[in-house]
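Quick one: Probable transcriptional regulatory protein IQ217_06985 from Synechocystis salina LEGE 00031, structure tokens please.
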Amino acid sequence: MGGRKWQSIKRQKARVDAQKGKTTTQLSRAIIVAARQGIPDPAGNFQLRTAIEKARAAGVPNDSIDRAIAKGAGTYEDGESNYEEMRYEGYGPGGVAVLIEALTDNRNRTAADLRAAFSKKGGNLGETGCVSWMFSKKGVIRLEGELEEEKLLEALLEGEGERYEWLDEEDGGGVEVFSEVSQLESLNQVLQNHGFAIAETELRWLPENTMEIADPDQAKALMQMIETLEFLDDVQSVTSNFELTEELLALAG
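--- reply ---
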């Protein structure tokens, strides 16, 4: 899995975080859409600000970021295609649910690419709504550095956060804080006001329940399928509801 930590799979209920592998193209598309949907100023557009922060963290050059903002604002003319946000759903090996968020300028091409990635490993692309009911979308803020739990609880109460989870050292340490989507921006601000160091802010689909995978061949096919999906330029995120048994985690480690 390209050095990706298998402990993260266990911790996040098998949601494979592809952010480290995202290309400049994928990150730029997120900026374009965010700038188009709101004002093209990160100071007044939380989604845009978050997309820019992720791009910078991944090493995307400033001129590429500025160009993406201009494209979203409609002030950069180069025949740029119009991207739209799409959600695709399907089933992987063993019947696990897979939820995909994409930004595409050609629905037919994206659907064909996804269908091929699914079928190659024994999965199938389904109809919209076939698995999304198994997930809920949440705001997630990752905090780093020294953290006082009592101070964190106070901030969560003030910012209407739902819960938090401590991260293992092998996952980078710190805490992930969860909120309703509508509360993400205000909670982010409250945490900053309380002096917490924010490493990342995002919207994430979380499975309501998980399926445990114990068969090594099934696990291998599933992870290969998800990795193929993640590295399609149109794909922004891939979420699933599986988790691996302790034995498979040990083998993978």
